[in-house]
Write a structure and sequence with these properties.
Structural class: alpha/beta
Strand order of the largest sheet: 14-15-16-17-18-19-20
Number of helices: 15
Helix content: 25-40%
Number of domains: 2
CATH superfamily of the largest domain: Metal-dependent hydrolases
Strand content: 15-25%
CATH class of the largest domain: Alpha Beta
CATH topology of the largest domain: TIM Barrel
Shape: elongated
CATH architecture of the largest domain: Alpha-Beta Barrel
Oligomer: single chain
Radius of gyration: 26 Å
């Protein structure tokens, strides 16, 4: 009987300007939710996601509808509870949460308790009876979900309580509930980790550092993990791969908002690194890769926006770094004019296409593609690029064990020979410990890049820091393994 749950609480979204003072990032809360969902779907992959109320800051049907569009993209089953801020509008957008749900031998009970003055609550006699009934019908773990914290009295500093908490907690303990999961108190409290009682209060997603909980239940064993969407400022991390409105693949990347979010998410600095090919050619020509044989000499589909990008970017550099994600042609030559090259602080080399992989699926020879990649890189890495972006992205269909034996060592050797850093990147790919360890063993420095095309991706380095830990390293090792590019230091 094992179950992995993600619990999110107190999103407090409000469209438009922030309506109140204080720490709530209400106007950015939809971005925080999308960032959470991306991490949930790609990396945590829970059996159940629960959202514990106060989705919006002011009972707005429009705001709730916008959040529901995002919540519907969660790949796991999802239970959504209303909170005291959601009002009657909640039930116009969301269905009533199921009173009981069984997943993998675990029973989950949802409670929508009566809201009382001072932001407290009361559990009805009917719902207390449901707690007893659940145990009579089920001999496995039982979990209680609610908005207001259900805790052992005096176990937490939370000022919020059930007016009948003695009776409610007695029902919890007498019926052997495994866990109480609540929200409402914004600082949150992991009482399981503190060994105070079998309860967690999930912190408010809308307040820095924008946290939620992952909870793993295996019989009587409960393990919790706090996920934070902001990275620790003291790490002084730089995001070397952020796109702008000039990108054809940009979803919403306006520069002022990018700076605001970079600050909130804990970045020390960022680099604007726009696709060189997208700045020289129109959309269809770029995505068809028709220009790769002739590079800048290719005559069709020209749409030179390079000078416009540099002019706009320079208005924000500093504090940002001026960079390019530089495409290379089929010979390994960078696709960028020399006068542009000489202005760029961060030369982020990128290989998006290989001839060997642009064939029908049944004709692809991965060994041929690996040889092409290493051969192309022998010229591209020697051209003067600073970083190789997403080094294995074109091979993302294959697991490490399915890649040709010469591919990763060959890439890393070219980086070593030419003093080029490797980008750790999780946008559209997964960077594995094998690649990072191969770089570190060869003395190749790395950088972190989010490859942001939308706001929620900016500085999303949770996967990067998990990779560091998976390789047996700690945050103290970061200064020794990270390259510092473009800062003039």
């Amino acid at each position: 009987m094992s179950l992995r749950i993600v619990a999110i609480a107190d999103i407090h979204y409000a469209d438009g300007p922030i309506k109140q003072t204080g720490p709530r990032q209400t106007s950015k809360a939809d971005i925080l939710l999308q960032r959470s969902i991306n991490r949930i779907n790609r990396f945590i992959k829970p059996d159940l996601t629960v959202i514990l109320g106060d989705l919006v800051d002011d009972a707005s049907e429009e705001d709730l509808t916008k959040l529901k569009e995002a919540i519907d993209s969660i790949k796991s089953p999802c239970i959504v509870l209303p909170g005291n801020h959601d009002g009657d509008a909640f039930y116009k957008v969301f269905p009533a949460p199921p009173e009981s749900l069984d997943i993998d031998g675990v029973r989950i009970l949802s409670f929508v308790d009566e809201q009382l003055p001072e932001y407290n609550a009361r559990r009805s006699e009917r719902d207390i009876a449901r707690m007893y009934q659940a145990r009579r019908e089920h001999d496995g773990p039982i979990i209680s979900l609610q908005h207001v914290p259900l805790l052992l009295r005096h176990a937490s500093q939370s000022p919020y309580r059930y007016t009948n908490d003695k009776e409610t907690w007695e029902a919890f303990e007498r019926n052997g509930f495994s866990l109480s999961i609540s929200g409402h108190w914004h600082p949150g409290d992991d009482l399981v980790a503190r060994e105070e009682c079998r309860a967690v209060v999930v912190p408010a997603l809308c307040e820095h550092p924008f946290a939620f909980f992952e909870i793993n239940i295996d019989g009587d064993n409960i393990q919790t993990r706090r996920h934070e969407l902001a990275i620790p400022k003291e790490l002084e991390l730089i995001d070397y791969h952020i796109h702008t409105p000039f990108a054809y693949c940009s979803q919403n990347m306006e520069i002022p908002v990018t700076f605001e979010l970079a600050e909130q998410f804990g970045l020390a600095k960022l680099a604007f690194t726009e696709h060189s090919g997208q700045l020289y050619f129109e959309r269809q020509t770029y995505w068809s890769a028709a220009f790769l044989d002739d590079a800048l000499a290719y005559s069709e589909g020209k749409n030179n926006r390079m000078d416009d990008f540099i002019a706009v970017a320079k208005q924000h550099c500093p504090p940002a770094l001026l960079g390019l994600e530089i495409d290379c042609d089929n010979s390994g030559k960078p696709i960028v004019h020399r006068y542009v090259w000489d202005q760029i602080q961060v030369k982020l080399g990128s290989k998006h296409w290989l001839k060997a992989l642009r064939k029908p699926e049944d004709e692809i020879d991965v060994q041929e593609a690996a040889d092409e990649m290493v051969g192309r890189l022998s010229k591209f890495a020697a051209s003067g690029i600073d970083i190789l972006a997403h080094p294995l992205r074109v091979f993302r269909k294959w697991a490490d064990e399915d890649l040709p034996a010469n591919l990763i060592p060959g890439i890393v050797e070219q980086l070593r020979l030419n003093n080029v850093a490797a980008e750790i990147n999780f946008h559209g790919q997964i960077t594995t410990p094998l690649f990072l360890n191969t770089c570190l063993d060869a003395g190749v420095k790395v950088v972190f890049g989010s490859d942001s095309h939308t706001y929620y991706e900016i500085g999303e380095f949770g996967p990067h820091l998990d990779l560091i830990k998976a390789c047996g390293l700690s945050y103290a090792d970061l200064p020794n393994i990270l390259a510092n590019i473009g800062s003039g230091e």
